[in-house]
Amino acid sequence: MRRTLTSALPATRPGEQVRLQGWVHRRRELAKVTFLVLRDRTGPAQVVLPAGTDLPPEETPIEVVGTATRNEQAPGGVEVTEATVTALSEPADTPAVELWRPTLDTGLPTLLDHAATTWRHPVQRAKWELAAASLRGFRETLDAQDFTEVHSPKLVEQATESGANVFTVDYFGRPAYLAQSPQFYKQQLVGVFERVYEVGPVFRAEPHDTVRHLAEYVSLDVELGFVEDHHEVMACLRDVIAGMVEGIERYAGPAVERLGLTLPHVPDRIPTIHFRRALEIAAAPVDEPDLNPGHERALGEWARSEHGSDFLLVEGYPTAHRAFYSHPDPDDPHWSRAFDLIFRGIELVSGAQRLHRYDDYVRTLEERGYPYAPYATYVEAFRRGIPPHGGFAIGLERWVGRLVEAPNIREVTLFPRDLHRLAP
Amino acid sequence: MRRTLTSALPATRPGEQVRLQGWVHRRRELAKVTFLVLRDRTGPAQVVLPAGTDLPPEETPIEVVGTATRNEQAPGGVEVTEATVTALSEPADTPAVELWRPTLDTGLPTLLDHAATTWRHPVQRAKWELAAASLRGFRETLDAQDFTEVHSPKLVEQATESGANVFTVDYFGRPAYLAQSPQFYKQQLVGVFERVYEVGPVFRAEPHDTVRHLAEYVSLDVELGFVEDHHEVMACLRDVIAGMVEGIERYAGPAVERLGLTLPHVPDRIPTIHFRRALEIAAAPVDEPDLNPGHERALGEWARSEHGSDFLLVEGYPTAHRAFYSHPDPDDPHWSRAFDLIFRGIELVSGAQRLHRYDDYVRTLEERGYPYAPYATYVEAFRRGIPPHGGFAIGLERWVGRLVEAPNIREVTLFPRDLHRLAP
């Protein structure tokens, strides 16, 4: 007999024999009857058994064979009666948290220490379902626009992107580093494929314990060539974000419902302001070189009240304070063609048009007092003909964290890594 | 004026004004005319210019605006005339290889040292296009079967999967390791999502220089719960491989053509033999514990001549010589429920039904003389109710390497990492 998923029970014929597989979600012993709730990947099903039936403990994997029976009181209107229950593994130990409760009320340490168990809670699991659906939407959007998926090495020879915050690896007796981003590779690959994306881990030896940083996270990187300027890059970002929301709608509807979420609306054109204006709105000094979390919160509120938008693009950050490969505004090189996307008051995405001329790289490295040698492989690539290009990077966990308004990014990370945590 | 891709030129109206963007692929100066071949991500286009036109060197990014004109001699039957050519960046330096030649005849060191350039060659680029299309096919197959994409950490606390061949990381002053596979995580996540897959980097400090090993490669990992035995896992693997071939057919047709490839046929049921039979066929001693590359070649030839198949599944490897989490054959625990997929004479995939009972893990660790402590987090997860499950891992580069019959796996890796190579 083929397995029936619990989500398919409502479509069975009354009296049909069914075979369910899943976990003991809950046992309830009443005077005249025993209720068993079986949970599979699609949800719960109610199984009715005689009073006093001996059942394996919660979280034990089981198989139930029985009769699909209409009952308006049961979830989905169908329950399983005249059932036999078979354990598919040993009886499970009592979980660290009661997974059958509607909400998962536990402190962060328990949530993370027992991640393999706590992710089983339907509401907790829903958060990762948003992540997985977002990834599908991300790729579908870019595949449809003729992008090529790439995979660049995570072991690199130079700690160049930013001297600090880099992990050192013993690489056959010499030092190597964990890539802080696929930045240098995706730019070089624009020379090959014109348009590339990569989904993969990036590593930051972040020495501070904050609610929004991780030592390892999933970065969604995009880079595209033959652009006029950064506005084309921002238009691409807009499509990608819209695609991620559509991915959630299409593939994670039940998760959205379980979480009681309202998904953000992505406007056809995301409200866009210059960095100077952003400082004004955030009531920051005019010579402030960057936006801090407080400024971002203020800008998030402004975007909501002025534009009814969860999203705000800030362009034109001061060139000197962005990565050296950011393209300056040709009309006033004090400002750059770099941008951030603020989502509900937090920086979600950084992007820019990049430099594409070798001479500009050489001059910028000089101006910043960076040595040439460590950048040589990367910078030399620009002597081989790289068109005007730009791109951006989205942090997956930060995206999901803001969607569900998690107070700590670790809550939406399967197995987070930080200053103190390297397991599970 | 919107950009026209070279692949769209045949669909233009005669006399239509077009704007192309791409690279100078080749310049040819004849007595009465200058030919320019522009290359974009979809292919080449011929541009006809007056004799003596000054053109930027090969590989310079350019824009061409001109008139689409029928010419049976031109590629695609349409060329661009009355054109103006504008450079979009500095003139490119002479590339390390002549990219306009139909084949890329260069030694491996040049190919790899100048990867960002050599990948531009249409035939070389086609190899990665197979990889990208395979990834799409992989995900589409599993998404349709209700799998959830996951991302597990690459920084791990214990070097447990195999004591040797592991890279050590300085993790905020204490040692951490780079994950050799997502094995432990994907098994634990079966307890959450039932069916999971991950595409990501894995790291092996492989101290030998071989043509089929890399220090970092892309692993396509799959794990599924509620299986009867490993045959269900092998059936899933068959669907995945078929999906990868379909992905190539659907999304990389031009690459297949450029490479002159014949794609493998994936039979509805891949021929499957027991390990004992495999030893016989390979004329190996009956007490041989594993198959070596010579055996695999012999088996590949046998599968082709006996079954007309590029694929062969070998099941039942000796339990003692497989990973400790492999499930023994209950009828004769000397043999396991582990399998390999041999593709054209090379092991492409390893998989198995895994142990799912805590007690079996404890006993197996004891029998092998492994200490419990380093495995504790992983093994404890099996006290929380993990159903019978199994899975497999496909090496992306090895897959593409066999598809194009590359003599060295480095030829199909964007930026390979090995004992000696950490750049570019």
Describe this protein's structure:
The structure is a homodimer of 424-residue chains. Chain A has 424 residues and is of the alpha+beta class. Chain A has two domains: 6-87, Nucleic acid-binding proteins (OB fold (Dihydrolipoamide Acetyltransferase, E2P), Beta Barrel); 115-412, Bira Bifunctional Protein, Domain 2 (BirA Bifunctional Protein, domain 2, 2-Layer Sandwich), CATH 3.30.930. Chain A has eleven helices and 16 strands. Chain A has helices at residues 108-113, 115-118, 122-144, 183-193, 230-251, 253-259, 275-281, 293-307, 358-368, 376-380, 396-403; strands at 17-29, 33-40, 43-50, 61-70, 78-87, 148-149, 155-156, 168-171, 174-178, 195-203, 216-225, 272-274, 311-315, 338-343, 346-353, 389-395. Chain A has an eight-stranded mixed β-sheet, sandwiched between helices. The first copy, chain A, has a five-stranded antiparallel β-sheet with strand order 3-2-1-4-5, with no helix packed on it. The model of chain A has no long low-confidence stretch (mean pLDDT 96). The interface between A and B is large, with 90 and 90 residues. β8 (168-171) of chain A pairs antiparallel with β8 of chain B, so a sheet runs across the interface.
